[in-house]
Amino acid sequence: MKHISILVPTGAVALSCIEGPFILFTKANEFLISMGKPALFTVQLVGLTNKAQVYDRFFTVCPDAGIADVTKTDLVIIPAVNGDMKQVIETNKGFLPWIIHQHHEGAEVAGLCVGTFLLAATGLLKGKKCSTHWIAANEFRQLFPDIDLVSDRIITDEQGIYSSGGANSFWNLLLYLLEKYTDREMAVLFSKYYEIEIDRSSQSPFTMFHGQKVHEDEAVKKAQEFIEKNYHDKITVEQLTSMLALSRRSFERRFKKATSNTVVEYMQRVKIEAAKKGLETGRKNVSELMYEVGYSDTKAFRTVFKRTTGLSPVEYRNKYNKEPVMQ
Q1: Longest CA pairwise span in the chain (Å)
Q2: Which of 66, 88, 107, 185 is deepest in the core (most CB within 10 A)?
C-alpha cells in the first residue's frame, strides 16, 4: 500500500486541490478492486493538528491526523493556498520540518499550483526545476531566485519532487503520478471517466501577459510603459537607452533584474499579447494582425508566437475565437 498524505493548510486553500487528490486515489482503489486487484492507496488528510479548518466561511475540512501522528508516508501533496505568499508560508511553517523529514525518509512531495511556494520554502527545490501558476511567476522568482522556474510547464519531476502549473493543471500531475504508481491503462481510464485531457505539457496557451511592474526601478518602468504604448512600432534597445540616458549594459542588466525578461523578450511578449487579443476577439487575418503589432516577417512572427503560446496563430484563433475566420 502507498500512503498518501494530503495536507490541510491554514489559509485560503483551493478546495479542489484537496478534494481532487482525495477523489483520484480513492477512485483508483475502486477501479482496482473492480478489476479484481487489491486496493493500492491509503489516503489521509493531514493538518498541523487534527483540528478542523474552515475555508470560505462555509466549508469545513477535518484532517484525519495531525503531522505528529504521521510518522511515515509515501507521498505528500501540498494544495494551493492563496493570498500573500510570505504570510502563507509563515502561517504554515509548522509543516516545513515535517515535509523535509518525510522526504529524507523516502517520501515523494508534490506541490499543486501555488502550493509550490510552500514546497519551495522547504529548500528541497533549491537548484531544481519547478512550475507554478503563470500569474504568480514573477513573485515566485523574487522569493526563490535559486530555483529554476519553468512557468510554461504543466508538470515538473525532479527525482520525486513534483510541481504542477496553474489551477486545474494539478489534474495532469495527479494523472502522471497515478500512471507512475499503477500503469498507463489506469491513468487513461481515470482521464476518460472524469473527462480530463491527458498528457498536456504546457500552460503557455493560457498565459496572459500583464507586464512585470512589481519592482522599484523607475527607469525600467518608464521603458516598459513606452514599449506597451508603442508596441506597433519598431523599437530598439538603443532608442530606449538614449531616452533614459543609460548605458546599454546598465539598462539591460537592470531590465532583466526587474522583469525577469531581456528587453527583446519583453517587447516580443507585449507584441504577442496584443496579437492574441486580436485573434481572440477580432476578424482580421493573421497577416493583418502581424503588421499591426509591428512584425513584417511572417516566419519570425509565427516562430515567436508559437514559442510564446505553444500554438500557431491559426491554432490559437481556432481555440479561442468563437467565430474563426478563414485564413
Answers
A1: 74
A2: 88
pLDDT per position as a tens digit, 210-245: 777 778 899 999 999 999 999 999 899 999 999 999
pTM recorded for the entire structure:
0.73
Look up residue 153 and give its DSSP letter: B
Domain ranges of the chain: 2-206, 218-320
Burial class (CB in 10 A: 0-12, 13-18, 19+), 27: middle
Question: Which residues make beta-bridge pairs with 260?
Answer: none
Asked if CATH classification 1.10.10.60 holds for the domain at 218-320, the reply, yes or no, is yes
Identify the burial level of 64 via C-beta atoms within 10 angstroms of its C-beta, where 0-12 means exposed, 13-18 middle and 19 or more buried. middle
Chain CA centroid to CA 142, Å: 15
DSSP state of 199: T
Dihedral over Cα of 6, 118, 166, 157: its sign = negative
Q: In CATH terms, is domain 2-206 a member of 3.40.50.880?
A: yes
Parallel, antiparallel, or unpaired for β 53-55 and 65-66?
A: unpaired
Go through 72-85 and write b for each residue having 16 or more CB atoms within 10 A of its CB, e for each that does not: ebbbbbbbbbeeeb
Instruction: Tell me the per-residue pLDDT of 135-166, one tens digit each, with 9 for 90 and over.
Output: 898 899 989 999 999 988 889 999 999 999 98
